[in-house]
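Ticket #4471: structure output looks truncated?

Reporter: J.K.
Steps to reproduce: submitted the chain below (333 residues) through the standard prediction queue, then opened the result file.
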Amino acid sequence: MKKDSDKNILVTGGAGYIGSHTCKKLVENGYFPIIYDNFSTGNKWAVKWGYLEEGDILDLEKLINIIRKHKPSVVIHLAAKAYIGESINYPEKYFRNNVVGSINLLEAMKKTNTTKIVFSSSCATYGIPKDLPILESEDQVPISPYGTSKHVIEQIINSYSQSDNLNFINLRYFNAAGADLDCEIGEFHDPEPHLIPSIFEALLKNKEFVINGSDYRTYDGTCIRDFIHVEDLANAHVKSIDNLLKSRKNFSFNLGTGRGYSILEVIKEVEKITNRTLKIKISERRVGDPPKLFASGRLAKKELGWDPSHSDLNEILKTAWNWYLKINSTYIF
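Returned output as attached by the reporter:
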């Protein structure tokens, strides 16, 4: 572990998709990540940068011991259950893990006098927005237990900031996508719930790809989403740490591009990049899916100097495709 504890950053969920990319970016910027993960969804092969401490956020005593041991200057809190569909079927799992686990982390920080946190929130806290692109002032009315859990955690963090001198930045992600520009790490879930890798899987295995709903009030009937390159999300975490270490201001930021793409638009771009044709099956709408979600990232640009420079859809898909081909031709696990 690094002796200069001012550079130590505790990353809960650091073995996950966004967490592993964030750890690489932290190291590139002179920080030293302490990865805290129970590997329920994270991957041990993705722990390439930093120091690993295996553990669960539901284990308060272990959290306290890990924070005392490494003395991180900032905590990045990514550990969470994060599937909307699953949250509707198993809400108790999401409230226990996400909400209770976050309270444990905040209590561990309080007991160790650790006062700075970057929280991985979500666009799901907004539910069905009234205005687009979404601003941070938009009402948060989540429509899934997952979104509710993230909204509740934001409120809890705000309460701790008022009573315990906690300094925070909430990052409300939109749709994370793409892979490491050097193709060292990328997205891998089993089963895979996310749009882009699911399209790739259907293409390579010559299977039908199911679109959940084609009758939304959008220009082609399919849902519209704001896709953010995981490299840009990782960079936002570094910039948030830089901000917290020099300022006492608390913020909530949308991490979006201000532009949405429909499911059919993504499919057409994938077909162009791969030179393959996807078999499509239209199914019923999925509960908890808003028709349109895309956000303004202007506040993050103003306060953090954040720029989603890799979030062009073509670049997202090319890096994701390169990674998907790699993991399907090389045994990396």
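Triage note (M.O.): checked the attachment and the full token line is present. The longest helix spans residues 91-111.
Status: closed, working as intended.
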